[in-house]
Automatic annotation (TrEMBL):
Catalyzes the reaction of cyanate with bicarbonate to produce ammonia and carbon dioxide. This is Cyanate hydratase. It is an enzyme of class 4 (lyase). Its EC number is 4.2.1.104. InterPro entries: Cyanase (IPR008076), Cyanate_lyase_C (IPR003712), Cyanate_lyase_C_sf (IPR036581), CYNS_N (IPR048564), Lambda_DNA-bd_dom_sf (IPR010982). Gene3D superfamilies: Cyanate lyase, C-terminal domain, lambda repressor-like DNA-binding domains. SMART domains: Cyanate_lyase. The active site is at R91, E94, S117. Residues 78-149 form the Cyanate lyase C-terminal domain. Transmembrane segments: none annotated. Keywords: Lyase.
């Protein structure tokens, strides 16, 4: 019996196939009818896909059932520590380091004692034209979870 392909190995194959076929992440998300950021994260190993989603992606990308099987596995969520040095990823750490305490205070002021869920959560990215250079707009949309004692 062969071992199940790791999610990181499957992600590498997905990325390579997507690039070789000239497909965008948005085209793949449209193909499976799922949100763009969620689909991209799932294909990079951060969410499990349904068997139907995994099969559709693999058909689109010309990948085999070993990749599809891996895409359905429960992930070990998080980020590879080496990725923290990537300039784009690091800017998110930097922004949360600077603005995280203020956002926490404002959430507590507006909603009370609690947190924003990262499980009952949506995230979106868009482009906003600006005369000084286009702006990246990232929206975090998480359910408020109040602490109950």
């Amino acid at each position: 019996m062969t071992p199940i392909m790791s999610k990181s190995a499957a992600a590498e194959l997905v990325v390579a196939a997507r690039m070789r076929k000239g497909l965008t992440w948005a085209a793949i998300a449209d193909e499976i009818g799922a949100p763009l950021v969620w689909t991209t994260a799932a294909l990079l190993g951060q969410h499990p896909m349904t068997p139907e989603q995994a099969d559709a992606v693999c058909r689109l990308l010309g990948l085999d059932e070993a990749v599809a099987e891996s895409l359905t596995l429960q992930p070990a969520r998080g980020i590879n520590p080496a990725l923290k040095s990537d300039p784009t990823v690091y800017r998110f750490f930097e922004a949360l380091s600077v603005y995280g305490p203020a956002l926490k205070e404002l959430i507590h002021e507006e909603f009370g004692d609690g947190i924003m869920s990262a499980i009952n959560f949506k995230v979106d990215i868009s482009r906003r034209p600006d005369p000084e250079g286009d702006r990246v707009v990232v929206t975090f949309d998480g359910k408020f979870l109040d602490y109950k004692w």
